[in-house]
Design a protein that fits this description.
- The protein is α/β, with parallel strands linked by helices and 403 residues long.
- It has two domains: 123 residues, Enolase-like, domain 1 (2-Layer Sandwich), CATH 3.30.390.10; 236 residues, TIM Barrel, CATH 3.20.20.120.
- The chain contains 13 helices and 14 strands.
- The strands form three sheets. Strands 6, 7, 8, 9, 10, 11, 12, 13 and 14 form a nine-stranded mixed sheet that branches.
- Helix 1 crosses helix 3, helix 3 crosses helix 10 and helix 9 packs parallel to helix 10.
- The longest helix has 21 residues.
- The structure holds magnesium ion.
- The site of magnesium ion (MG) has 5 residues, from loops.
Length: 403
């Protein structure tokens, strides 16, 4: 079998105003997807996503980069040789030209996942079977997320997740420490302690603010404290991991195993959150999860983009013994619910493994055609890691807007 062609598809779905959410990662205006289609000379095609669910970059440039540059390295190659092709793209151009923390790695992720999809279809097996088989089925899922709100509003959001059947959910903080702490207490008052609460600061705190909130999280029995600090502050994470009795988590903005190595070496993380459609694909996420497992650490993949990323992450978590759950985006997101005809959705806080070969989901081409990329920005810039000094490029994202 040989690769016959590579083509990137990009889709765009605006978020109606009543469904827009805010966090330290930015104010979301649209959900957008870029996914790669790899065709073969035997009629089998595979699909893989880049993780830019709410894009703050021009997805047209992503498609051009993939289709004009990466594709040339793939056409004519045997798609079954995933590790070889991963190395060819990574060492052949990414580390030399694009950078190992780059859109190039996200495109490599899409290509890797599409190759796994092809392999599964060619062999007639779901991807998790090729990764060693199901360690767990179904895969537990937590709801993402309770977004920036007043304490009363945050409690209402959390209650809605429980009413929908979720047994775990995440809460976004990093807006205002007093409001953050009041919201977390209001949520526990509303839902009690019989449900897992994850807390995500999207890199918005300084060390001393993270320590203060972290001490509250100890009392509130939070399951983990996600991205408390900017990801370049490895020592800060190590400081928090040493001081706090709450698990430190990070990884959604990290690329390849080499971003995780210093965190693991310096005991700065307890839960790695690699995103399969950004960190280097299913292949690289599995390597990162296994690396974490060797140090008795857990892995919970970041999954906040599209239906293909959910599917890739389900296969990954199913096959890993140290991955207790998957993130499930519960915001308004057509690229997660309608990009494929048979999306993997949780029921009672868990997702059943697909039985079809490969990723096990089928692109809805009518949806793709009906939602062409418009070139508009999907999300504003994220906040600075200092309370009161957040910046943004899109209006209507501030503490005042919650009043
Ligand atoms: Mg996060």
């Amino acid at each position: 079998m040989k690769v016959a062609g590579v083509r990137t598809h990009i889709v765009d779905t605006p978020i109606p105003e009543e469904h827009r959410v805010r966090s330290g990662a930015g104010y979301k205006l649209a959900r957008q997807a870029a996914f790669v289609e790899i065709t073969t000379d035997e009629g089998i095609s595979g699909y893989g996503p880049c993780s830019f669910g709410s894009a703050s970059l021009d997805l047209g440039s992503v498609a051009t980069l993939c289709d004009n540059t990466f594709a040339q390295a793939l056409v004519g190659e045997d798609p079954h040789r995933i590790e070889r092709l991963w190395d060819k793209l990574y060492y052949g151009s990414i580390v030399r030209v694009h950078g190992y923390r780059s859109v190039g790695v996200a495109i490599l992720s899409a290509i890797d996942i599409a190759l796994w999809d092809i392999k599964g279809k060619a062999l007639g097996a779901p991807i998790y079977q090729l990764l060693g088989g199901a360690f767990q089925d179904p895969v537990p899922a937590y709801s993402s997320s309770v977004y920036w709100d007043t304490p009363e509003g945050a409690a209402r959001q959390a209650r809605a997740f429980l009413d929908a059947g979720f047994k775990a959910f995440k809460v976004k903080v990093g807006l205002d420490v007093e409001n953050d702490i009041a919201s977390l207490h209001a949520i526990r008052d509303e839902v009690g302690y019989g449900v897992d609460m994850l807390v995500d600061a999207n890199q918005c705190y300084t060390r001393h603010l993270a320590l203060r909130v972290g001490r509250e999280l100890e009392q509130l029995n939070a399951l983990l404290f996600e991205e408390p600090l900017p990801i370049d502050d490895v020592d800060g994470h190590a400081f928090l991991a040493d001081k706090l009795d709450v698990r430190i988590a990070t990884g959604e903005n990290m690329y390849t195993r080499w971003d995780f190595v210093p965190y693991i070496e310096r005991r700065a993380v307890h839960v790695v959150q690699a995103d399969a459609s950004r960190c280097g694909g299913i292949s690289e996420a599995k390597r990162i999860f296994d690396l974490a497992g060797a140090f008795h650490l857990h892995a919970i993949p970041h999954t906040f983009s599209d239906a293909l990323t959910v599917a890739a992450s389900v296969h990954l978590v199913a096959a890993c013994s140290n991955a207790p759950m998957i993130e499930y985006d519960a915001t308004y997101n057509p690229i997660q619910t309608a990009l494929v005809k048979n999306p993997l959705v949780p029921s009672e806080s868990a997702i059943e493994l697909p039985t079809a070969p490969g990723l096990g989901v089928e692109i809805d081409w009518d949806f793709v055609e009906a939602h062409p990329y418009t070139g508009t920005i999907g999300i504003g810039a994220g906040s600075r890691p200092a309370f009161g000094l957040g910046f943004e490029v899109i209006e209507d994202r501030s503490a005042k807007s919650l009043a």
